[in-house]
């Protein structure tokens, strides 16, 4: 039975004092319980790795109380407050540090449930809390993340992704592809990309760099004061600089909150690798299959029990017709599929091919389920104290919702080697920095969270996106960097270097004078600090960029 239609019985939550206080509507008891919780320090006062670790442990202690999900519906106290339409309890829990993005057994978080239940008095504070809490969490973890970066060796690395198919011709030409070029030095990180997104089959290219700055020479980065832990986006085509964390620590505006409140649909995409199992591929002699990936020799494995699902849920149009509190944007707590800036083209159901369940050799299976949740008109509650408001009085009958789910059972292929200079656990913090802004990195990170044999590293991963097409992610280059005073950008490939020599171009201009071209790589003769702000670039705001994009889209229509 859907949790939104289930009766609320306080005795079901007797093992959690916070749940029980919410279930019976005892706000005095709830506030007393929450007041005993430890308080996190001001994020501006957390400067060392030890302080960061201590604050994370404190946050875990708080979460153990306010985010408890030890019940049959896997509901946090915040889920329960939403189901009972108790805005006072929801605000108190949010202020105490409750996580609004945790999913219940049905797969939805409290904010999504509040949106579908048409509870603006709950949605507004939860949206604001989630926005500010995400920034606080990032700042708490920053000193520890930077410390991990500084302990790692300095390197230059290239990661490519492209599409391939043994049946569909020219898929590599049509589908988006890119090579991520990543530099790491001290506590700094830089990533160059050329793919900004795509609209259907129209690929949008942008020559841009992401700069994560901690240990840098301020004089090499212009007159503007750049705080440590900044993530900058450099658009080399327009010669503009954007602050990725612009307004991250500021409260949302009324109009931004209103956009959330006006939604009538939510969705949840995700890849599940928790049950993944590696099966070694064998050759015709039944020996382990090996392959060379760049300079590394790797064993080939298939990863079984990997699932990608896309669930959507919306209020029925008939019930929503006269609702002044109505549609149309998508909840950005999850990956924004409308941007389509990632590399798995068929993630969004509108790209999926027709379902063929009888395909014997397919490594991809899609199941489509559609159902309508039916809610009860009343809820049976045993009153615990007549002085408290009846739970039935506080319960809001949820509108009828329509839910769809697309499920893909994937069998990625992995090439694992023990020779790669980095460990998987070392790479994940680097991906965390970029994952918030680069969707392709998010998908790669999901695969890398699976458990691999000790000491092994996936230098190549092939993920099916439709039965005949797969995206291939390959670590093509890894070079340790020399000290900063003799730094240079390693040549990408001898072939490209030779082409430049034969063309008589004399190499590319310095990155400091205009950025790395997406078609070429700078040669080893080029000197320059990749973490310096290029001259002639101007600072810009995302608001200006969004307005410009909006005008373009309107003119195209």
CATH level 4 superfamily of the domain at 1-151: Ankyrin repeat-containing domain
> Approximately how much helix is present in the residues?
25-40%
Identify the overall geometry. Answer: globular
**Protein structure class:** alpha+beta
| Gap between N and C termini | 44 Å
The CATH architecture of the domain at 1-151 can be named as Alpha Horseshoe
Mean residue pLDDT: 75
Major sheet description: 13 strands, mixed
- Could you tell me the number of beta strands? 17
Name of the CATH class of the domain at 1-151: Mainly Alpha
> Can you tell me the residue ranges where pLDDT is under 50 for at least 5 consecutive residues?
323-389, 492-527
What is the CATH T-level topology of the domain at 1-151?
A: Serine Threonine Protein Phosphatase 5, Tetratricopeptide repeat
Strand proportion: 15-25%
Q: Work out the helix count.
A: 15
Radius of gyration: 26 Å
């Amino acid at each position: 039975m859907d949790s939104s239609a289930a009766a609320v019985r306080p005795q079901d939550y007797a093992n959690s004092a916070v749940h029980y206080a919410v279930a019976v509507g005892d706000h005095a008891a709830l506030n007393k319980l929450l007041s005993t919780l430890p308080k996190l320090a001001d994020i501006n006062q957390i400067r060392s790795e030890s302080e960061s670790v201590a604050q994370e442990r404190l946050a875990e202690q708080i979460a153990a109380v306010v985010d408890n999900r030890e019940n049959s519906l896997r509901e946090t106290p915040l889920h329960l407050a939403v189901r009972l339409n108790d805005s006072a309890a929801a605000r108190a829990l949010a202020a105490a540090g409750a996580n609004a993005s945790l999913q219940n057994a049905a797969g939805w978080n409290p904010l999504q449930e509040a949106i579908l239940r048409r509870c603006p008095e709950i949605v507004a504070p939860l949206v604001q809390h989630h926005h500010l809490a995400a920034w606080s969490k990032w700042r708490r973890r920053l000193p520890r993340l930077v410390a991990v970066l500084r302990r790692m060796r300095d390197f230059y690395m290239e990661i490519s992704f492209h599409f391939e198919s043994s049946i569909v011709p020219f898929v590599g030409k049509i589908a988006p592809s890119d090579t991520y070029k990543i530099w790491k030095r001290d506590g700094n990180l830089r990533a160059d990309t050329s793919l900004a997104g795509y609209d259907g089959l129209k690929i949008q290219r942008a020559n841009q760099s992401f700069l994560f700055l901690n240990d840098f020479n301020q004089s090499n980065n212009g007159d503007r004061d750049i705080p440590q832990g900044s993530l900058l986006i450099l658009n080399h085509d327009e010669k503009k600089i954007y602050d990725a964390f612009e307004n991250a620590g500021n409260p949302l505006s009324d109009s931004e909150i209103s956009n959330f409140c006006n939604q009538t649909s939510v969705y949840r995409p995700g890849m599940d690798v928790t049950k993944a199992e590696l099966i070694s591929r064998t050759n015709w002699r039944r020996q382990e299959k090996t392959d060379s990936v760049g300079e590394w020799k790797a064993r080939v494995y298939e990863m079984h029990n990997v699932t990608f699902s896309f669930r959507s849920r919306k209020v029925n149009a008939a019930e929503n017709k006269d609702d002044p509190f109505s549609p149309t944007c998508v909840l950005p707590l999850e990956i924004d599929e409308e941007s389509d800036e990632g590399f798995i083209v068929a993630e969004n159901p509108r790209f999926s091919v027709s379902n063929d369940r009888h395909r014997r050799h397919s490594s991809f299976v899609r199941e489509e389920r559609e159902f309508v949740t039916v809610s009860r008109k009343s809820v049976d509650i045993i009153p615990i104290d007549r002085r408290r408001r009846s739970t039935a009085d506080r319960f809001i009958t949820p509108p009828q919702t329509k839910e769809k789910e697309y499920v893909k059972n994937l069998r990625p292929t992995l090439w694992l080697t023990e020779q790669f200079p980095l460990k998987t656990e070392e790479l994940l913090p680097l991906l965390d920095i970029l994952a918030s802004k680069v969707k392709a990195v998010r998908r790669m990170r999901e695969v890398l969270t699976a458990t691999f044999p000790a000491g092994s590293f996936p230098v190549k991963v092939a993920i099916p996106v439709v039965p005949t097409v797969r995206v291939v992610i390959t670590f093509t280059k890894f070079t340790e960097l020399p000290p900063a005073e003799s730094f240079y950008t390693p040549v990408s490939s001898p072939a490209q270097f030779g082409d430049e020599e034969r063309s008589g171009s004399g190499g590319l201009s310095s990155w400091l004078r205009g950025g790395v071209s997406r078609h070429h790589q700078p040669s080893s003769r080029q000197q320059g600090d990749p973490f310096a702000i290029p001259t002639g670039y101007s600072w810009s705001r995302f608001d200006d960029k969004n307005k410009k994009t909006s005008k373009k889209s309107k003119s195209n229509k």
